[in-house]
Queue: 2 jobs
Job 1
Amino acid sequence: MALIVQKYGGTSVGNPDRIKNVARRVAQYRAAGDQIVVVVSAMSGVTDGLIRLSKEITALPSEREMDMLLATGEQQTIALTAIALHSLNVDAVSLTGAQAGIVTDGVHTKAKIQNITPREVHKLLDAGNVVIVAGFQGQTAEGAITTLGRGGSDLTAIALAAALKADLCQIYTDVDGIYTADPRIVPGAQKLPEIAYDELLELAGAGAKVMQLRSVEFAKKFNVIFEVRSSLNENPGTIVKEETTSMEDVVVRGVSLDKNQAKITLFGVPDQPGRAAGIFRALADAAINVDMIVQNASHDGGVRVTDLSFTVDKPDLLKASKVIESLRPTIGFKEAESNENIGKVSVVGVGMRSHSGVAAKMFDVLAHEQVNIDMISTSEIKVSVVIDLAKGETALRALHKAFLE
Amino acid sequence: MALIVQKYGGTSVGNPDRIKNVARRVAQYRAAGDQIVVVVSAMSGVTDGLIRLSKEITALPSEREMDMLLATGEQQTIALTAIALHSLNVDAVSLTGAQAGIVTDGVHTKAKIQNITPREVHKLLDAGNVVIVAGFQGQTAEGAITTLGRGGSDLTAIALAAALKADLCQIYTDVDGIYTADPRIVPGAQKLPEIAYDELLELAGAGAKVMQLRSVEFAKKFNVIFEVRSSLNENPGTIVKEETTSMEDVVVRGVSLDKNQAKITLFGVPDQPGRAAGIFRALADAAINVDMIVQNASHDGGVRVTDLSFTVDKPDLLKASKVIESLRPTIGFKEAESNENIGKVSVVGVGMRSHSGVAAKMFDVLAHEQVNIDMISTSEIKVSVVIDLAKGETALRALHKAFLE
């Protein structure tokens, strides 16, 4: 008898019929004799509808009250899922995040899980129930309702799997698993049978929108093995786990294209200690996430100066440009330039650690496709380049062909 | 500085604009320096929508899970009401029933309040907040979410007013208060400045749909004085309180017409001890509520037999008829007859206790209108008669004119 945690996203529980489908799948697993904990999101559209209601009242609602409001979405789904299981003669009990013992800090709308006391979950499982837990939510030690922010339901499932020492954690979604590249762009993309946490982190960070980074980071930290699979069919998905030696046989696990970055370049920054720190501290204070940073070798221009480029999320570009402009007197750069028409192409794989020449091969492939490289950034298991947005998909396909087909 | 509990029903908080109106009214009271606790229902339509979703899954959802589902309706309203108060720069905090310390028994969908520990409410009030509490809900001592059934939000307000020793409890609704008769039927109906608990109980029991009996019973038991008034204007409403001697100066406080009753008559019931008990125990076991019971004097028919009439709620008639038919062998009555075309007309007033002749005057008025009386039932402060449904409104108007104009 195994203990399985299954998580179903908003599309999978989007209406009563889909909730009945989820219940049928859960009932199958239950009939095989396993203990099942189900984590569900709000029905798709419910959360957006609640946000719209709040915006009709005020543009800037309090975060505590938004948590109180939004937590009702998942609470509705757990009740309906329990009702659907009952109609299949499966014993089931729903629990809110608070009732399931999920304790968070008090940072409303993006709370962090502090600990989980799964006493009630264990008790109900041992009594023969499927236990259905509201994703995305918890409560503070003082009893205030909190939500975990984007990707919160995945996090609930993975954290519960860790706390319950579950044998298996399945993240059901509307795709079949994790692919070597986005199949909408690369027709030859293949589903991966398994992938290392670090590879998934690099791919997610490189724009592959499978899961939020924090859930994968949590899983890595607590060594929770999970499977990403589809709620629409019975196909096996992709197992995400700690790196194994056999994974190194594959040099590149996947390639990705991130179209959501913009680039800012500062020309003529005086090459003195503290200038770069001043720039990135100001951006961090404005809650702007900086991804790639490249600084060219300094050159002479009266005093020694250098050029500095970095990328930010496209929606943050305007805000970032304003921060940069406000720094001109203190930093003393000559000129700032921004460019939204860029794409970031990455190749990812733990096998790179023991194989040299990945970057060289990547640049060869891009040169052969007449793609000009604008910025380069590397990690132990990833090489990313910034290129012209218009060449993004061509570059992705060429890299997939060269490394993965 | 007074402590005021205000309750707003589903229509009063039916959309974001109405919630803003409620917030403006609350802000006015708060600006006068009073401490305010606001109890709200679900936005009108929300509860019905959730019930519809559950019915799409199964016809008979579990009551525990229906409580989990429906409790979200009020939770959404408290959050939106708090957000609306913030936008008026009024400090406000929302609390679910559980967070407000409302502990109930475990009878899901119609739980009874066992006790209220308003520590959190007091703490938040003392810190300068308006406290917004979700009506209709509580939790068991074990932490399961419960709902209080029909009229539950009124009950939450009155029970909180008792627990907080509030100076004033206001029940805001879409009517101006309690009237001498239904103004849609009787054009001369007047709003009552005050009414005794017992009178309101008899009027509610007699079909006037102002408030559920249990909320009024609770208020009477704990001597909570409350005001029924409109959320759409500033008119004073009706104060509901313990009977005072001055109330006896008015013989009849109000008249009502209940069109929702049906009558069953059993002819030729053997006049032996235990026969009536057998009938009404069987009906009670089937959860059928019996209102009026009339037994005629027995007469000779071989053995001595009697005729027995009683009324039930119209939707229960079919079920009641089946129960009665199943009793024929054991009870041994000759014939059963049912009639849906009846109306119950009642006159109510604590002044009746010290004034004789109310019944006689009532029968005179009805005779003058050519209304035939079918059944009669009296209490200390009420006389009810069953008549032909078609004559109901005529009778009500005539009685209002004779007693109240």
Job 2
Amino acid sequence: MDKPANTLLNIHPIIKKRWSPRAFSAKAVDGRQLKRIFEAARWAPSSYNEQPWRFIVGRKGDATWDKLYECMVEFNQEWAGKAPVLLLAVGNTVSGKGKPNAVYQYDVGQSMAYITFQVETEEMVAHQMGGFSKEKAVALFDIPADHAPIAMMAIGYQDSPDVLKPDFADMERQPRVRKAMDELVFSDQFGKPASL
Amino acid sequence: MDKPANTLLNIHPIIKKRWSPRAFSAKAVDGRQLKRIFEAARWAPSSYNEQPWRFIVGRKGDATWDKLYECMVEFNQEWAGKAPVLLLAVGNTVSGKGKPNAVYQYDVGQSMAYITFQVETEEMVAHQMGGFSKEKAVALFDIPADHAPIAMMAIGYQDSPDVLKPDFADMERQPRVRKAMDELVFSDQFGKPASL
């Protein structure tokens, strides 16, 4: 099922087609594809080139996948159990100079966006999740105190909404919505729509 | 000057070619391009579709550009003064349910990454900055207390490094470097390189 951005503007086709389905097929993702996906993340920009992004990746059938699955809230387990790849994005909260990095979350977000871009290039789909136990993740993967789990992502090939439980299938078929440009892009002062 | 990612992996050409130059030409950016750039940001994913991203955009010659320029530290003013477009990314720190949004920075980072993709699609370049006064930005743009300035960006057409002051020109010609994949992508436990 395609669900392109509802826009008349000629944005990049990958940005237009990308969305976050929950219906994954069992088809495996090969190692070369995963390498390209993480290579895309690696070349994202970051403040002072700190590259605060770290990724823990599991492939279905391995112990890492099982532990990542265990971290998720039940709501996400119900649909993400079929995804061939699960990953956890972790941020280095400390800069190379030993000071707190105020923008580590922002930069990890950029690298994850680069992952979504490469995932779409590979004709696959990704769905990010905030619903997981950070405490479990820290314990299960021995994440050090100066690093913080931020978000999880399921990656794989898309399947029909029909493979989902009815509630998820309904969500899958909902239209995609976004705030209006006027609510997001300002000039002069905050809240005043820019005239572009 | 091109400075593609030093990789043998076949990542998306936009991700491969994108970097963050400081040499901008005076050539203006038209409104249709700006609309597409923000439309790309608008369709980024976010936690619970909160869309915490807000943008304040100035075009050279207008009062918003002048105020954004005034927010920058001197180091950035020295090179960004030629950029035809400056923007400030602001995050809504509160979710629609009135609770703190723990991932607003992460999601604003994703939307800014989508902006970099669209900027490259438009054959332009972008350079992000953390070096600016958040206090000045809050004061000059009346940014409300539940919103936080995060990062600035210069957007425009690239020029030769020769237009920069010598120190910046030297930086412009430095090779791009990244941490090795083994330092970033783990399985089993944090810090243990994944074998992909």
